[in-house]
Amino acid sequence: MATNTTWVEISRQALKHNVQLFQAMLRRSGSTLMAVVKSNAYGHGISETARITQALGVRWFGVADTKEALFLRKEGIRSRILVLSFIQRDLVAHALKSNISLPVHDYSMALIISRIAVRTRHKANIHIKIDTGTHRLGIAATDALHIVQRILKLPNINLEGFFTHFADSENPDQQFTNKQTAIFNSTIQEMKRNGIISKMCHAACSASTLLNRSSHMNLARVGLSLYGLSPLEKEHLSISHKLRPVLSWKTRIIQVKTVVKGDTIGYGRTFRVKHKMRIATIAVGYWDGYDRKLSNTGRVLVHGAYAPLIGRVCMNVSMVDVTNITSCKAGDEVVLLGSPRRSKYASRGVTAGELARKIGTINYEVVTRINPLLPRIIV
């Protein structure tokens, strides 16, 4: 049996295609691509995807926290890195030394960064977040001028950018996104009238990059769609259809056996055998990130044919019906998510959207929950 029993494959060509698609789109609107690689690059492997995209000319990366940013530096990523969400105070000095741009959500956060910057004799490049209606993180737009003026009086602080985040960007009705954009633009104009100029202004995520050109500004933070997945429920845009999924998730058959009428499969005996059938036990379970709600509802691909899950998804294994796939055996490859490569069945596949619908969630969660300890292999 092969070394890897459960693994993730990352298509270099698909990622390259998507990156170049967004680079071309943003170039037309005078903007620049930020590759968002937070949360292990949405499950795709942060170091693997960052190396590929940096080689394609991506000059900005977005991460969730300082720990992720420093990991990228350790992995040899030299492009600009912006922490988008939060900082770990004990890592700020190292982040400043590593030329990582930091977010500021309020005055107290700026004060912490300033004090550490003074102590370590570094200049802190900051992006100040303006809350335009999402009400998670950021300075309220109505208070922004006064607070920003106080922040910029702090020593060793360099204003590099302003940013905001949209609450309803995936809605085809862009009314609220347009409202947030207007509030953000108005806030930036107020800053300019008071002599406060920033190099960068950014608001767009994947959905607004696809749906709303006015949100592109001079930097667009593209995450999910960089990996070929659409954030839109109705993929009505031509570019959505051009996206190529980057990730395939695979495992192997451990054992094939025959069961007879009356037998039950797995924990809780939730599947009762109605006729003689062949079943395969495969090397994936909920520890790997394969959701337990797929029990008796999911399906996988074996030799290019669909095989339904039977019984409960266990911690480390699951069972599938291979009665009609007579040639399968222990060690054979099983596709959990994605399509077979170099196969006459390549048009068949299991999508993140399909899995999301079956377990009652979104495609973001399906891929980000894949266990980060599973190997990511570039193909």
From TrEMBL:
Its EC number is 5.1.1.1. Substrate binds at residues 136, 315. PROSITE patterns: ALANINE_RACEMASE. Signal peptide: none annotated. The keyword Isomerase applies. GO terms for cellular component: cytosol. The modification N6-(pyridoxal phosphate)lysine is found at residue 38. Keywords: Isomerase, Pyridoxal phosphate. HAMAP family: Ala_racemase (MF_01201). The active site is at 38 (proton acceptor), 267 (proton acceptor). InterPro entries: Ala_racemase, Ala_racemase/Decarboxylase_C, Ala_racemase_C, Ala_racemase_N, Ala_racemase_pyridoxalP-BS, PLP-binding_barrel. It catalyses: L-alanine = D-alanine. It comes from Candidatus Kerfeldbacteria bacterium RIFCSPLOWO2_01_FULL_48_11. It is an enzyme of class 5 (isomerase). One of its GO terms (biological process) is D-alanine biosynthetic process. Catalyzes the interconversion of L-alanine and D-alanine. May also act on other amino acids. Belongs to the alanine racemase family. Residues 246-379 form the Alanine racemase C-terminal domain. GO terms for molecular function: alanine racemase activity; pyridoxal phosphate binding. The lineage of its organism: Bacteria, Candidatus Kerfeldiibacteriota. Pathway: Amino-acid biosynthesis; D-alanine biosynthesis; D-alanine from L-alanine: step 1/1. SMART domains: Ala_racemase_C. Its cofactor is pyridoxal 5'-phosphate. It comes from the Bacteria. This is Alanine racemase.
